[in-house]
What we know:
The complex is a heterotrimer of chains A (280), B (368) and C (282). By secondary structure, chain B is an alpha+beta fold. Chain B is 27% helix and 34% strand. Chain B folds into 2 domains: 2-94 and 170-251, Rossmann fold (3-Layer(aba) Sandwich), CATH 3.40.50; 256-361, CATH 2.40.50.140. Chain B is built from 9 helices and 20 strands. Chain B is elongated, with a radius of gyration of 24 Å. Chain C has a single domain, classed as MetI-like fold. Chain C starts with a helix and ends with a helix.
Amino acid sequence: MELPMRNPSNGKAGWLSWHAFAVFGFLYLPIVTLIVYSFNGSGVGGFPPRNLTLDWYRILFADDAIWTSVLNSVIVALVAMAISLAFGIPAALALDRANFPGKALFRRLVLLPLILPGIITGLSLLMLFREGDIKLSLTTIVLGHGTALISVATTEVFAGLQKLDRAQEEASLDLGANYWQTFWRVTIPNLRLSIIGAALLIFTLSMDEIAVSFFLIGRDNTLPLEIWGRLRRGITPEINAISSIIFVFSLIAIVMWYRLRREGRTEIAAELVEAAAQGD
Amino acid sequence: MDIVATQSVAANEGQRGRDNLLSIRNVAKSFGKNPVLRDISLEIAEGEFLTILGESGSGKTTLLRIIAGFESANTGEVWMEGERLDVLPPYRRRVNTVFQHYALFPHLTVEENVGYGLRVAKLPKNEIVGRVQQALAMVKMTSYAGSKPAKISGGQQQRIALARALVNRPRLLLLDEPLSALDANLRRQMQVELKSLQREVGISFVFVTHDQEEAMVMSDRIALLRMGELEQVASPREIYSHPATAYTAQFIGHTNLLRGAVLSRVARCHSLDWPVGMPDGPVLFSLRPENIRVVDLAVGSSGVNVVRFRGRIRHRAFHGSTELLQVECEDGLRVSVRTATREKWHGDLELEFSPDDAVAVRESQERI
Amino acid sequence: MFSRAYRAAITVPPLLWVAVFLLVPYALLFCYSFWSVSSTQMIVHSWTLDNYRDLWRVNVYWQTLFRSMWIAARVMIFSLLLGYPLAYYLSFHAGPRKDLFYQLVIIPLWVSYLVRAYAWKTILGSDGVLNTLLQYVHLTKHPLEFLLYSPFAVVLTLTHIYTPFTFLPIYASLEHIPRNLVEASHDLGASPIQTFWRVILPLSIPGVLAGATFAFVLSLGDFLAPLLLGGPSGIMISNIVVSLFGAAYNWPLGAAISLCMLLLVLALLFLSENLEKKWSFR
């Protein structure tokens, strides 16, 4: 639909496209810098980059502490994902189809960690563990991530439920399947995309989480905390190397995700932000 | 097609002596490789109520959007009062639109919606207030001035959309299926209101619809669009009683299409024949079901110059005041016959029609 | 349609989890803020208003809170200035490249927050990429010191992080504007600029509010960017909380500050939600 009215406003669209170009430059400048300097022989900083090298990657691969933290992060992310889904899916179902006293408060509480600065969630959980005499460890981090990310599972699955045709479940019940069978054979398969999307997002967010973990950390580091520890000591190109690797993996995950959900553009992130800001 | 269209326009102009307001000249438009409009030429007269009628996909909405300025034609021109219209952006055209789903601004009140065009034109405050009041009174919506569009019914939204467009005193008002979202009763009521409103304000209306009944009730002229081309442009009476093509005859009302041939001034169709004034060759006739009469044998034939035949009722459909009979003749010809319900016909019937009522129509070409 | 047992099964487990891991911790935060620390560094579980009295008296808390709000406000404004025109461009002028551009905005979201903050550090440092570049092209002789370890660096980094978050709800709200409203506006004689101010902007306010709230609230509570790039002049309120929970070891005072922050955030969310309701018409 090319509108003739565009023609007189071309000047404005031109201004806008320059602005868009500049914003993209701003968004990508640090990422590009990061990757370029992961191959820079003389370390981070200094223009122009010189002495192309893979040394930092070599050093990185020999660095056991980092790989231990990567493994820790993966474990934490997987368990947190399981917890978030196990409680987030029922929470979405409850918001969609049950009425109980305090439902509005419950909705707000579940979604609050999405919009709340991580420090508040982290601190209040820290106090819980202290009062409960629970030693800080990867387990407490898992509980923290699980709690904070239930909101993601709930938001995504709730959005999926809004699109689900209730008549399908009624048909299943009508054909003699009980609630349990209907749940597994009709409800869950219909929510498949929402659940996979939520799972991917929870995994990524957990892998990257630091504000909550910061307060709940025991002896074992997750990857962001390991990176944080090193950053406090100074700049090291190994961080560029590991970050570049993670970036590439994230890109692969994004591409996989779009392959999976080809029929529609994902608006998860937008849904999340909107849900977070609106409290529902 | 064009010949018919131009001829009818010429005929109508002669009849009314009105000046042309808008002139669409050889407009064509395609979306990608899909031709939507092919070489449309159409004149719209001052104060006229013209309906663009067509099935979905016929290109009627596209034609309307080209006049409004939301689409640009690939070729052809649109002129209004001696000025080229198609080069102007929509906001510089003295044309306003009533949108299909009204497109009322949800963040503005009824009053602000109606005053929108006047405010963006930076008219003095008191003039705006006066004209908005007047427009709201015209559509009997004064008491809803402060409501938001979401709070009023579909019929009321329709009136507001109308007031919002008319308050700007356009030279031409475009209406894109404005009644399609209303239920049947309200729709009929609005048809009447819209028509009388148009007479009152004297502005030319171009009304787009897919509903042939609606087109018949409201229009001065109907432009029937089929797959991007004008099939016929004529007054409702003309288009009904003298359809130019088989498609027109079938789309507007119900008809029997009789295929036959003319030989030495006699049309022959199955076992029927009657004298005609046309050259030899194959021919197609449209014969409306209500133009076939059942002969009451007790009373006898109604005239001398009629075509008579016999047939047997195969099926009957009750339509309230009339009944539609499917009659099969002895020679296998099947025709629909509309009779008044009170007459209880059954079994074998004697039927007749006047040769004048069998209108020769052109075959409608297949188009892709 | 759903039986009692079904509804209980979907309701009770999440309710319990939320009660234990969200409701109780928030309650504890509230309680802690009225407790105190003994000279032997033990938490004293008796009620006192001392923490709040301290908050009231000690100027540095107020100053830091206001500085944090000022930093958050700047981040919010810059994110809007970057995000809104971008969203408008994508929604109304990008044509077939719209989807690609949308992905391009999303992708940086998948790069770790920490890593992006760190990348800015490598760019802004006195021997960082930017300074060496400026010297390389002879624009400056000496490194510009104000770039890193300043509120500027914090605002820049947080703007970088929250611009996509601000963009997303704005873009969604622009995409939800029925295009026939834009046509109707042009039809009624409004130019593109008039149409923007009178139709498009008002209808995208809910998205603007959501994005602005997000950027402001999350920047307000941030403590990592200030630690990494802020220097002494870039300290924010959460940094004080962190040190109270760490080296300074005064959890109750930290809890009191956190609670104030929580209330501030909730008030903002409430405000934004009400404004959004006022500005949404569907």
